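Intended use. Records like the one below are meant for learning the mapping from a protein sequence to its folded structure. Do not use them to infer anything beyond what is encoded.
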Amino acid sequence: MDSIQKEVNEEGVYVCITPSNNDTVVARLLDLINRERAKYDLAPVTLNPILCRIAEDFCCAMIEGGFFPQDHINPLTYEGPYDRASAGGYLFLAIGENLAAAQTTPDEAMRDWMWSPRHRDIILGAQWTEVGIGVRTGGEYGVYWVLEFGNPP
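Structure written out for the chain above:
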């Protein structure tokens, strides 16, 4: 990850920043996800631009709203992953979401997800065909990561 930036606007709210190396970071994380899936003979997932936008938007919501929800519910809007996917225009049979914060590299984020049985189960869900990856800097934790897994009808 390039230098981690934390900016505050004139209202004292953290600013959500797209890393200058975002494309490289996203590509690395997608590769790591598919390597883990391959170990279990699971099909690779592909990036979906709608899911990416939803993931990026949630990174920014967490940074600007000053929260990191353990239950995946935005405490300001009370929306969960299904609500965000629907509002974002993604048609799905199911949605899976992983969140992380403070890891400074894709490898660190992936390591932490794979160490957690709940997060690992989402990554290794056989039903997933698509993923959205959001990575943004700012806020209390410095780097925010969101994976939105989906399977369209």
